[in-house]
Amino acid sequence: MPPKKKRPAVHAATVLALLAGSVYLTVELRKDEDNKTPEVQAVTDSPGRLDNGASAQGGKQTWERLRNPDRTVLRTEGGKVLASFTDGARTATLTGPSRTFTEPANTKSRVVTDDWVRLMPEVWRKGAEKEKWFKDWYKQYAGSEEDDIFAMAFQYVQGAPVKKDDEGIAYAGDANFGPLNPNGSEGNDLREEQSDFYDYLGIPYTFRDGTTIQPEAKRARAIDCSGFIRTVFGYRARYPLMATDTAGDGLPRTANGMARGKVGAPVIPLKGVSPADRPKTIDVVQPGDLVFFKLDARTKERLDHVGIYLGHDADGHKIFISSREEVNGPTIGDKGGTSRLDGNGYYAAALRSAKRL
Q1: CA atoms within 13 A on the CB side of 207
Q2: What is the pLDDT of residue 179?
Q3: What is the C-alpha R_g of the chain?
Q4: Nearest to 84 by CA among 69, 74, 98
Q5: What span, in angstroms and rounded, lies between the C-alpha atoms of 235 and 205?
Q6: Strands 205-206 and 212-213
Q7: Each residue of 133-144: b (16+ CB within 10 Å) or e?
Q8: In which residue ranges of the chain is pLDDT below 50?
Q9: Phi, psi at residue 350, to the nearest 5°?
Q10: How far apart are the C-alpha atoms of 240 and 220, rounded to whole Å?
Q11: SS3 of 135, please?
Q12: CA 44 to CA 6: how far, in whole Å?
């Protein structure tokens, strides 16, 4: 085999130049990619303050770590929050187009909000903004007007139109609380509890642990308070569901199970159920949080009501939506108790804890 000819020196120089250019381009591309994922700011307890100064970033969005609860927020140069993600929770609150939610059949209250509450495919953890699953998810939903938790929740209030899937099953529309209780009366167990999403749908449902539950005909189109949460977060938004409070993993069946269960991140930790255990402050609650109440002494140590916090209404009050017997279904109305967390009304005084799923 003849010996190889030596390549001219000019060829070697060319290769070196190309390699140098390649390295330069690689570094620049990495810099560009890093710029697309804003730097995480220093941990602070002051939500309105950016320690490193976003204005120095040339208008780029910046990430910041906050405490109580531990979370990551994405801000604009001016400090406006674009999104909030809490450690241990899948619920994310994104800023989007302003919307108005009303329930004219039962209240004059209005909720005008630019908060959009969505479920992420994975539980948030520190540094997740760098991970592919999050980048893909955020690219899809930042600015999206696809139905979120709030939109879904209001699809069950009185007068909400029926929506059917491809199989003709009515998955949304005016929901009842439950069938009339033959032994109940106004203000005293007027309607039966225990109506879940599969009762509303009128179809059997098999949970992840293999348990299959059949719907009860008398509960058709009905969801109690925890059934409402499971309908919105579970059946609609696809948060995993348990068949009961103890079988399988996911969102438990009852308000008490949800409050005391391991899913989600405690925002207002549960200390007890007595009036003395009412939270001293509720400023930490964020739109989309589950709020839990102790209403009935007969349930002893169990929490017995749950709702979804919506933020402030047009009058500046902290308002929530829940399904209750007085109005026979989901409501932000005042019949049977004002739907506010602030003040000293019926539900405000009964609030005991809050959780971010």
Answers
A1: 24
A2: 95
A3: 26
A4: 74
A5: 10
A6: antiparallel
A7: ebeebbeebeee
A8: 1-58
A9: -95, -5
A10: 22
A11: helix
A12: 63
- The amino acid sitting at 352 is R
What single string gives the DSSP state of each residue in 214-251? Answer: PPPGGGTTB--HHHHHIIIIIIIT---B-SSSSSSSSB
State how far Cα 266 lies from the chain centre. Answer: 13
Structure tokens at 320: 């929530």
Q: Is 205 helix (H, G, I), strand (E, B) or coil?
A: strand
CB 250 within 8 A of CB 208: yes
Quote the pLDDT of residue 146.
Answer: 98
Structure token digits, residue 253 = 């069946």
Rounded distance between C-alpha atoms, residue 288 and residue 271, angstroms: 21
Q: What's the token pair of residue 263?
A: 């899913």
The SS3 call for residue 9 is: helix
Paired sense of beta strands 351-356 and 329-331, if any: unpaired
User: Quick check: 65 and 87 in contact, CB under 8 A?
Assistant: no
Q: Provide the token pair at 357.
A: 């799923």
State the pLDDT at residue 59: 66
Q: Can you tell me which residue has the tokens 């969505």?
A: 118
pLDDT for residue 10: 41
pLDDT at 87: 98
Say which amino acid occupies 46: S
